[in-house]
Amino acid sequence: MILIGTDDGLLGLAEGGTRLLLDRPKVRAVDGDWAVAGDLVVALAGGQAVSLGGPTPLCVAALAEGSALVGTSGARLYRVSRAGEAEPVHGFDAIADRRDWYTPWGAPPDTRSVAIGQDGAWFVNVHVGGVWRSVDGGQSWWEVVAQERDTHQVIAAGTRMLVAAAAGFGASADGGDTWSWTVDGLHAPYARAVAQAGDFELVTASTGPGTDRAALYRRPAGSNAPFERCRTGVPEWFDHNVDTFQLAARDDTVLLGTPGGTLYRSDDAGRSFATAVEGLSPIRWVGFHASRAE
Q1: SS3 93
Q2: Which residues share a beta bridge with 287?
Q3: 47: exposed, middle or buried (C-beta count within 10 Å: 0-12, 13-18, 19+)?
Q4: In angstroms, rounded to a whole number, what is the distance separating the alpha carbons of residues 130 and 145?
């Protein structure tokens, strides 16, 4: 099932249309049986809602044992259990470099995205503060993407890690130890969202934070080929950034959601798109149901 996180709740899209799965406002992230909605972390399977007691949850990654890793405002990281217990990841709080993290507009930095590598390593993207990796459950951390890259999203794509950043598109085939970077084929280097669909990598790029000229691109995964713009079935240019979590892929299916409430879908790894649904409230997140409870 396709999932759509909107300002009015979490929707499921199937052949019969959409249905409301979670009646909570501002669904901004979902992974496995966990969702972030407004100021709460919600266990979808049981409906339990957890408040972190201050920080606003912004992103979530389901962990193998059923708990969730939650990134928040203020560049914090929490682990939330099935029992509803929320504990800060103290090792992340202790990173000495956090005193240098910032936002361009002067607000405190945020934990913008989190991902779990195929080997179980944790990857945490701080905006603006680099991408950090932990291989021991959050006790110790290493910076694997430098802060000056200005990363907006990190994802796991099989054995590879992919990044969308102000510096362009980054990929690592060795768990984040080394990265290749490119802007080849992009009309501008500022990337906000990334995905992998089958044998193709996809990235959104624009001219900057307040852009009126953004586009979606793809290229063969792991290649040195330039990115090519996706033109069929989607606007040639978006007048806004296609942001973190508004692009997702599974196998050859690609989803792209917009603040205007339109969901575009491709079933050929981004070669062509069609409008799947429109007229929704602003779409904050798109993805797929991956829960054992489905």
Answers
A1: helix
A2: 3
A3: exposed
A4: 5
DSSP result, 139-158:
SS-EEEE-GGG-EEEEEEET
Nearest to 70 by CA among 1, 8, 13, 122: 122
The pTM (predicted TM-score) of the whole model is 0.96
How far apart (Å, rounded) are the C-alpha atoms in residues 159 and 108? 32
**Structure tokens belonging to residue 232:** 């069929």
Domains of the chain in sequence order: 2-288 (2.130.10.10)
Neighbours of 48 (CB within 10 A): 14
What is the Cα–Cα distance from 246 to 71, expressed in whole angstroms? 17
| Residues forming beta bridges with residue 161, ordered by sequence position | 156, 172
Tell me the per-residue pLDDT of 157-203, one tens digit each, with 9 for 90 and over: 999 999 999 999 999 999 999 999 999 999 999 999 999 999 999 99
The gap from C-alpha 252 to its chain's centroid, in whole angstroms, comes to 18
Q: How far apart, in whole angstroms, are the C-alpha atoms of residue 183 and residue 79?
A: 35
